[in-house]
Amino acid sequence: MPVGAVATYLVSLTARTSLRIGICAALGVATADGLYALVATLSGSALAAALQPVLVPLRWASGLVLVALAVRGGLTALRQYRNRHLATRSGRTPMNPGRAYLALLGITMLNPTTVIYFAALVLGSGTAAAADPLEQGVFVVAAFAASAGWQLLLAGGGALLGRALTGRLGRLVTALVSGVVILALAVRMLVVPS
User: Fold this and answer.
1) Is there a single domain that holds both residue 54 and residue 126?
2) Where are the transmembrane segments (predicted)?
3) Alpha-carbon distance 157 to 153, whole Å?
4) Whole-angstrom distance between the N-terminal and C-terminal Cα of the chain?
5) What is the pLDDT, as a whole number, of residue 185?
6) Does residue 91 lie within any of the structural domains?
7) What is the pLDDT of residue 91?
8) Residues 88, 121: one domain?
């Protein structure tokens, strides 16, 4: 499984908050993957043709959201480090499990790479052409379960990372490194067409 900008953000979010929030965020990613698997099995080759005109705007929207997340995360980390705050508390509403789920669901739904991946997978395997709805259902459930397992593993890694780096400097370095990785992956997405 590739680790892209969304996975990097998931690990970083879990490290900064809690495993509970990370689990909900991971399930948001898995839900998006499951929905795309469902759409891909139901629409088959029509999906690729329908998405062609909106791939560039989707890529830009996804890239810009990731850039905003990277910049916001870096600035927040710097502000907290300067103010000597160890917690992620601020004047805004803290991240909660529901908000984490919806945020990662939305980010993943915007990611055109996810759409292309599932369309190619379904077209290559012939699942979309299969007349058997049971086979299509098994594919969708398996895609969701595989994604959930991987995303939960990443969230667990983020929770371990968060416990290992509890000091002010550790939190700053973790936030800045993850921000740079997210930013680099977002720029790559914007510059190098899929």
Assistant:
1) yes
2) 60-79, 100-125, 137-160, 172-191
3) 6
4) 17
5) 75
6) yes
7) 47
8) yes
Domain count, the chain: 2
Domain that holds residue 60: 50-130
What is the predicted pLDDT for the residue at 44? Answer: 62
Is 32 contained in some domain? no
Q: Is 38 part of a structural domain of the chain?
A: no
Which residues, in sequence order, are CB contacts of 76 under 8 Å at separation 6+?
A: 88, 90, 175
- Select from 89, 106, 130 the last residue of a domain: 130
Which pLDDT belongs to residue 99? Answer: 95
**Domain annotation covers residue 26:** no
pTM of the entire predicted model: 0.68
Tally of residues, the chain: 194
Angle at 71 between CA 69 and CA 73, to 5 degrees: 65
Mark whether 84 and 114 lie in a shared domain.
yes
CA atoms within 13 A on the CB side of 165: 19
The rounded distance, in Å, linking the Cα atoms of 47 and 40 is 7
Counting as low any pLDDT under 70, the low residues of the chain are 1-3, 44-52, 85-93, 112-113, 115-131, 163-167, 193-194
36: exposed, middle or buried (C-beta count within 10 Å: 0-12, 13-18, 19+)?
buried
